[in-house]
Amino acid sequence: MSVRADMANALTLNPGSPTKTFVLEAHTDEPSAYLEDLAGSRDVEATDDAYIFRVSTEHGTFWVDQLNPRFWSFHTDMRTDRASSTLNSWVGSRRDLDWMWLPSEHLRHIWPGARARRVRTDFRGRALLGGVGADTEDLRVQLSGRNAEALLDFISSSSEFRSAVSFDGVETSVADADFGVVREAVNRMGKFAVSGDSFELHSLFVSTVVDRYSRLVEMCEQKALSWQSSGAEEGGGNVAGGPVVIHFSKPIPDLPSFLETLFSSRAPFRLWGMPEITSQGVAEVEAVDLHVGHRLRFDIGDVWMRIYLEQGGCGNTIARLVSNLQHRFDGALRLADPELNEAVGRHLAPIAA
Length: 353
Description:
- The protein is of the alpha+beta class.
- It has three domains: about 5-100, 2-Layer Sandwich (Double Stranded RNA Binding Domain); about 105-190, no CATH class; about 245-345.
- Helix content is about 30%, strand content about 30%.
- It has helices spanning about 5-10, 30-40, 80-95, 105-110, 125-130, 150-155, 200-220, 255-260, 315-330, 340-345; strands spanning about 20-25, 45, 50-55, 60-65, 70-75, 95-100, 115-125, 140-145, 165-175, 180-185, 190-195, 225-230, 235-240, 245, 270-275, 275, 285-290, 295-300, 305-310, 335.
- The protein starts with a helix and ends in a 9-residue tail after the last helix.
């Protein structure tokens, strides 16, 4: 029997206590050594599969799948609070480890043809909106049933409320003639809970979600600024790349308050910087991403934001920013680049940068 079959047999997929999968982004060239440093070498057990490790904790066991070298899956039957506490402590103590940050539309269209049986939105706009003329500062809704998305669609069709509709979690059923049936619950930080009769189908579900997200991250990294020398003795060269441009559906009501919250070093944005507002009312910020320690530059107007990622920077920074802006400022934001906009999941007509 293969190690993957052993892992599937060990994880129960019990409806009363679903199996959990947590996806973390890790930056390392030595994944096994990194995992030992993270969890303690005595608590990490290699298997006959080079990509799978068993990690023991005081609360239970993680099966860690590193088949995707950047986005690792931590499978477990531990209680959610205990598993989350362990992983939160690891992410919080490491600069090179982070969660996935799924954009709203990645959740809304989580699987081809699947209908959400439960949806949850959790918009918390008070800090970034500043309480200045906001139609909706907070919106928390959880709906269940065959038409769970219908009310959110109705709310989002309103110009007054659409900016406050952002998917925080979904639950859906997935069936396959060869694999079986699973019921999947997913939240925007890449935390899955599954019950059913096929761990293989669950693995396919997770990898599909991760692959879509990974493409978004890589596309953001391809936009990073880089200097390409001409090779001539007199010097010279070309700058490649360009900014990631976000357009908001409404103006920033209080720019100084918005900037103070965004660049405060605190979660969930994890950005630090000292903004300067020009006489034209545009904020310029040389910032640091506390996730990986890389620098990036921002220009921010009343209805737009430009992010300049430097070469070697992490595209997860952009995805984290987009996801959290959707949940804390504008659920109807758009990206100017049509390919990036489609990768985020907003299938809208291209707009000018």
